């Protein structure tokens, strides 16, 4: 959905060259704000994603745009830049083995009567927290549970709050959950699906920068931090994980992406199975 928007960039703005010095400025900025490292291969991506903003303001260089977003009154546009330069790739029930582990091992062992709490710490456009919510509602029934979902990108957070997706995503959702928790769009909403209100109201969406101190939240039983550390250098990974673990209760579980590991990053948690860790 985000990529389609970039094809509409003004051709004149697209012709503006992003010089190496300017590219370095944007790289340093994103690293300072979000801890994300942009390699030289990302220069075309930065060029194309910011081209429409140059066109919008009638600017003649990326240097002018950089001065605008770093000015005292440039905070709103700075957030727009962060939104455009952060990657948001996600799916419903991505990495199914994690959901199987949650269902088969974690939920049966939870303390009865206590609110079960999960943090989706890089929720993107909401597919992950809604997948978790479907599973919790299905397994726990009337038992109390809470989900907090956070992301740095305000644009995708708004998408997540709406819970409104293209029908192309339906194949990712188990049929019984699709029937139970999703509404099929009709008329002007044809070709879309909407997550049922009772699930949307159970998730608390927050903006949070993983590169900063965690928000004031109670402890969680499970924290999902999946497929985001691949954009961090080793030092940033250590800091982010350490901060999040302060909000994971003893005995709680920490999930990372299947291509990620905490080996050499944190010794506080123990490996349960690939990409799943437990706090002693």
Description:
This protein has 280 residues and is of the alpha/beta class. It folds into two domains: 2-85, Chemotaxis receptor methyltransferase CheR, N-terminal domain (Chemotaxis Receptor Methyltransferase Cher, domain 1, Orthogonal Bundle); 96-278, Rossmann fold (3-Layer(aba) Sandwich), CATH 3.40.50. Helices cover 41% and strands 18% of the residues. The protein contains twelve helices and ten strands. The chain has a seven-stranded mixed β-sheet with strand order 6-2-1-7-8-10-9, covered by helices on one side. A three-stranded antiparallel β-sheet has the order 3-5-4. It starts with a helix and ends with a strand. Mean pLDDT is 90; it is low at 1-14.
Whole-number radius of gyration? 20 Å
Largest sheet: 7 strands, mixed
Distance between the amino and carboxyl termini: 40 Å
Strand order of the largest sheet: 6-2-1-7-8-10-9
The DSSP helix count reads: 12
Low-confidence stretches are 1-14
SS strand fraction: 15-25%
CATH architecture of the largest domain: 3-Layer(aba) Sandwich
Concise synopsis of the structure shown:
It is built from twelve helices and ten strands.
